[in-house]
Design brief:
It comes from Luteococcus sanguinis. The protein is α/β, with parallel strands linked by helices and 316 residues long. The protein is built from 14 helices and ten strands. The protein has helices at 16-26, 44-53, 59-67, 73-83, 97-109, 112-123, 160-165, 184-191, 203-207, 214-222, 244-254, 267-270, 276-282, 303-314, and strands at 10-14, 33-37, 128-131, 138-144, 154-158, 169-176, 195-198, 226-230, 262-266, 286-290. Strands 3-2-1-7-8-9-10 form a seven-stranded parallel β-sheet, with helices on both faces. A three-stranded antiparallel β-sheet has the order 5-4-6. Helix 11 (244-254) links the parallel strand 8 (226-230) and strand 9. The longest helix is centred in the N-terminal third of the chain and has 13 residues, at 97-109.
Length: 316
């Protein structure tokens, strides 16, 4: 009898559209998948629910759940329902249906993880979705160039929604509270993983916050898992003008002892940076250059192309 090959256990860290891209790729190669999601969003529907109900912002968690829905008619339908928003100009206008479902379960169960697991059971998700912390977090960023009359002055911006849209140069971020507790289930998932995937996503507001939660950062550092850093296809608003090397440099500034095994970079983005190999080596990583961008030319990852690269690295 041919032995059954064990699928790799993977923890994917991030938030928003970037995490959805990595999950959409990873779900094609394993069902031993845990999404560890940022909880610092304070804009839109998530921000309103966070303020009104004193709960975690559900939006990034909802997007991760939608990305893990089964790839059949029912799964795609549920994903569309989760992502759909109420129209009109009433009290519900702009709210995502999935956000209300998640927030309602949290209020009923009094347990964020149990609520997310219940949604996962309902949707038959291919993997588990967990918050990186069980308390909502606030991002503070030091920026320069906010005031054109004082271009070198360091100013502080507060809030994920504000930082994500700034055109000023972000120098560093921190979390409030400054040593938030990690979600215990997320810490355990990281310890149990064969691979840890960080990125793609908004660098300052989706990725780096994970490395500022002490228990989570320690788990990533101590885990025997192989660590994969996936760079974006192109800079976002908050990293406008950053080269691939600059993305790595900023990460190393926030987590100087963290080492990676692989750094995945799209070939077109990599071609702009002659120092990329040296920066990857500085964090202990092999540079993996591949065509992983969407074929339509948009600055997004193609899930199938990205899945092929992950599969090669994971031997899946």
């Amino acid at each position: 009898m041919t032995p059954v090959r064990r699928l790799p256990a993977v923890s994917a860290l991030g938030g928003g559209h970037g995490l959805s891209a990595s999950l959409s790729a990873l779900r094609r190669i394993t069902d031993q998948l845990t999404a560890v999601v940022t909880v610092a969003d304070d804009g839109g529907s998530s921000g309103r629910l966070r303020a009104e109900l004193d709960c975690l912002p559900p939006g990034d968690l909802r997007m991760a759940l939608a990305a893990l829905c089964e790839d059949d008619h029912a799964g795609r339908l549920w994903a569309d329902v989760l992502q759909s928003r109420f129209g009109g100009d009433g009290a519900l206008a702009g709210h995502a249906v999935g956000n209300l479902l998640i927030a309602g379960l949290w209020q009923n169960l009094g347990d964020a993880v149990a609520g997310l697991d219940l949604v996962g059971e309902l949707l038959r998700t291919r993997g588990r979705v967990l918050p990186m912390s069980l308390v909502p977090l606030t991002i503070e960023a030091d920026v320069v160039g906010l005031d054109p009359l004082r271009p070198d002055e360091v100013c502080t911006l507060v809030g994920q929604a504000t930082v994500a849209k700034t055109r000023a140069a972000v120098q560093a971020i921190r979390l409030v509270p400054d040593q938030p507790p990690a979600c215990p289930d997320a810490v355990q998932a990281i310890h149990d993983s064969d691979f840890i995937v960080l990125g793609p996503g908004s660098w300052f507001t989706s990725l780096l916050p994970h490395l500022l939660v002490p228990q989570l950062a320690a788990a990533i550092q101590e885990s025997r898992a192989r660590r994969i850093l996936t760079l974006n296809i192109a800079p976002s608003d908050e990293t406008d003008g950053f080269s691939p090397s600059k993305h790595i440099e900023i990460l190393a500034d926030h987590a100087p002892e963290l080492r990676f095994d692989h750094v995945i970079v799209d070939s077109h983005f990599a071609a702009t940076d002659q120092h990329l190999g040296a920066h990857a080596s500085a964090i202990g990583a092999e540079l993996v250059i591949a065509d992983v961008a969407d074929r339509d030319g948009s600055p997004r990852h193609d899930p199938l192309r990205l899945a092929a690269v992950y599969s090669d690295l994971m031997g899946a």
